[in-house]
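Schema walk-through. Below, the input block comes first and the output block second. Nothing else is stored per chain. Lengths vary across the set, and this one has 353 residues.
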Amino acid sequence: MMMRKLLGIFILALLTGPLAIGQGKPLSEDSFLENLQKRDSVLIGDQLRYGFHLKGIPADAGVLLPDFSKGFMPGDSVEIVRSWTADTLRTVGGKKGPKHLDVDFYLLITSFEEGDYLLPPLSVIQEKTAGEFDTLKFKPLELQVFTIPVDTTTYVIHDIKGQIKYPVTFQEVLPYLAAVLLAALLVFLIRSLIIARRRKTSPEAAPDEPAYLVALRKLEKYRSDKYWVKDKQKAFYSGITDTLREYIDARYGIDAPEMTTAEIFDSLGKTDVPADLFVQTKDLFETADMVKFAKAFASDEENAAAVPLAVRFVTSTYQVSPVPVVRQAHQPDEGPVVRQAHQPDMTEEGGTE
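--- output ---
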C-alpha cells in the first residue's frame, strides 16, 4: 500500500512540474546531507544523499515533491544520480487506529568539480486533510567538494600497462589432469572386464594348453542328445569331426583340417593308432560325411556312440609316441609337403610332460 502511495506521489510530482512555494516555516533541523562514503570530507565523484525528514505523515496522505528533471543547479556543477527516493523509517499505529509514518525523502547527488556549492532549497506540499495542503520549505545546505592534490615535483607519467598475464599453476591444471586420469582408468577397467569375460566364456583353450585337453573340452559340448534330431545332426557331426581334425593336426602333424577323410586316414595309417580304434574312427568320419554332404541321417545308436568314440580316440593316443610321418598337404597341383611331426618329450612312465 505504501509503495503504491509513493509511486502516485512521484508521478504527480512529474506532472505538476516545479512547485510554487507558499508560506511555511523553515525546518532546517530536519534537512540532511549525508556522504555515502562515510568520510569527513567530500571528494570529486562521491555520492551524497540530500533530502529531508517528515514525521507522522498519515499513511493515506498525499505528498508533492519538486521536479528537478530539467536541471538541479546552473552549469550542472552538482548532478543528480538518482531522483527522489522515499525511505520509511518507522510506522506508528495501525490495525484499529490510524497509521502514521516517519519517512526520509532524498536525492542522490554528486559533483565532479572542486568548489563550494550552495544547494537548491527543498520544499514539499503535504496534504494535511482532504482539500487542505501545507507547504514546507527547508533551508539549503552547503556542499564543499575537494580534490586530491598532485605533487607535480615528483609526479612521473608512466605508460599504460598491459593486461597482467598470470602463469598457469599446477593447482589450476590438477582438476583437468585428474579428469583425464579418471577417464583413462575407467577405460582400462572396462577393457579388462571385457577381456576377462571373454576369456571366461570363450570355449577356446589357452594357446599353451595341451591339444588333448582342448579336444576333450570341445567334445564335452556334444554329449547332449538334443543334437540327435535330424535338423541338428549336421552340426553335431561337423563339430565332432572338426575337433578330431584339429587334434590330429596338433598331435601327429597331419594337415587334417585341409584333407579329405581318405587322405586323413591314409596318413593316419602310418602311425601307431590301434587297428580297432583306427577302423571305428574312420567309420565315424564316413558317417559324418554322409550326414554333411549326402543329407543322410544317422541312427540313434550311431549318434550315441559318436562322442564316446571320439573321446576314446583322444584319450588312447595322447600319450602314445607318434611315428614321424610325411605330412600330406591338400594341394592338388603340387607334390606333397614334407614336415617332421612334433615329438613331445616322454617321461619314464611313457607320458608326455
